[in-house]
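Duplicate of #3305? Posting structure anyway:
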């Protein structure tokens, strides 16, 4: 009787070593001088250089900020299309876009990739997207973990989780508590669906409408797969530009990442309990992908706005006096924005005006 090996159970250590050999270059391209080398690779090292030097941030009361998230069932679309180089951007964005809501600067990122079997090419595609997302938000990819679990995942399946750490000066931390009646709500454009609501998206498009990922959509020359895999937009650089330009607590009062729950629910998370955010329903153009989904699935308006971002990926609650100037800054960074609401007396809710 032959002796059993790890490979017999579905884990090939030689293939695993090949997979790992493809990742260091994708990590190194995201590194800054604050990333310290550690040859054994058991952990990632990042120097908090407060005291001085070229790259010091001179924090007085630094607060570390941590966020974790995944990509969800958008991964099923990537698997159907056989394209895996963008979901890593989604993974970074879903974490980092949360971290910046308190005014934090992203520092570093780690990933967790769970797979049914070792596949060096697939892993390289996934991590290339993670690496690109880290570059786009100026975070260092300092490490991660790849788990091979053939009995837990079906062939071709995988899952992703991400973890980021940022930093913010305590005196400049945004909590939303300073929001007051008269403040403006600025909405910054999303790139599309981002990474929320994909269980409903897939049910509408693939099950109910019976479309295939290579079919063309009726509102552009893109395929269904291309539209559904459009990566989540990263907002780190424009937010950092705005926060560095102003005295934060007197100008920018709150930031909300618009994910599951939509505008009303996510805005309410950054409001004190004595004000409401009134949203002007027709104050921004809703991207055609949402009208397409709504028509295909015969989805009610309220459900669309509760599940999806509807074209607004991030909101800023700001002093009305500075709203126009902030919008000009966002435009200069290539981010379209609209004044989509106002803060009024209330009880900490988001609602239509």
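Output from current build:
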């Amino acid at each position: 009787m032959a002796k059993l090996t790890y490979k017999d159970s579905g884990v090939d250590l030689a293939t695993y070593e090949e997979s790992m050999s493809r990742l260091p270059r994708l990590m190194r391209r995201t590194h800054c001088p604050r990333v310290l080398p550690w040859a054994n690779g058991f952990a990632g090292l990042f120097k908090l250089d407060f005291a001085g030097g070229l790259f010091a941030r001179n924090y007085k009361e630094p607060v570390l900020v941590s966020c974790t998230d995944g990509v969800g069932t958008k991964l099923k679309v990537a698997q159907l299309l056989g394209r895996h180089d963008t979901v890593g951007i989604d993974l970074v964005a879903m974490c980092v876009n949360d971290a910046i809501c308190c005014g934090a600067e992203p520092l570093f990122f780690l990933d967790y990739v769970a797979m049914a079997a070792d596949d060096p090419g697939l892993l390289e595609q996934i991590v290339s997207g993670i690496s690109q997302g880290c570059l786009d938000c100026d975070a260092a990819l300092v490490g991660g973990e790849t788990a091979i679990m053939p009995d837990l995942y079906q062939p071709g399946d995988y899952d992703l989780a991400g973890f980021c750490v940022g930093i913010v000066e305590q005196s400049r931390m945004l909590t939303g508590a300073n929001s007051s009646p008269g403040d403006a709500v600025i909405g910054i454009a999303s790139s599309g669906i981002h990474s929320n609501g994909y269980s409903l998206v897939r049910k509408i498009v693939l099950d109910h409408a019976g479309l295939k990922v290579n079919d063309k959509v009726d509102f552009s020359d893109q395929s269904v797969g291309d539209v559904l895999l459009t990566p989540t937009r990263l907002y780190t650089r424009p937010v950092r530009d705005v926060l560095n330009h102003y005295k934060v607590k007197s100008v920018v009062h709150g930031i909300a990442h618009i994910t599951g729950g939509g505008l009303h629910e996510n805005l309410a998370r950054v409001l004190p309990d004595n004000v409401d955010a009134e949203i002007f329903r027709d104050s921004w153009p809703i991207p055609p992908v949402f009208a397409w989904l709504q028509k295909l699935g015969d989805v009610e308006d309220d459900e669309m706005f509760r599940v999806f971002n509807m074209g607004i990926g991030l909101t800023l609650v700001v002093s009305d006096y500075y709203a126009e100037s902030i919008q000009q800054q966002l435009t200069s960074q290539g981010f379209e924005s609209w004044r989509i609401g106002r803060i009024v007396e209330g009880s900490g809710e988001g609602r239509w005006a």
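Confirmed duplicate; merging threads. The chain has a mean pLDDT of 94. The radius of gyration is 22 Å.
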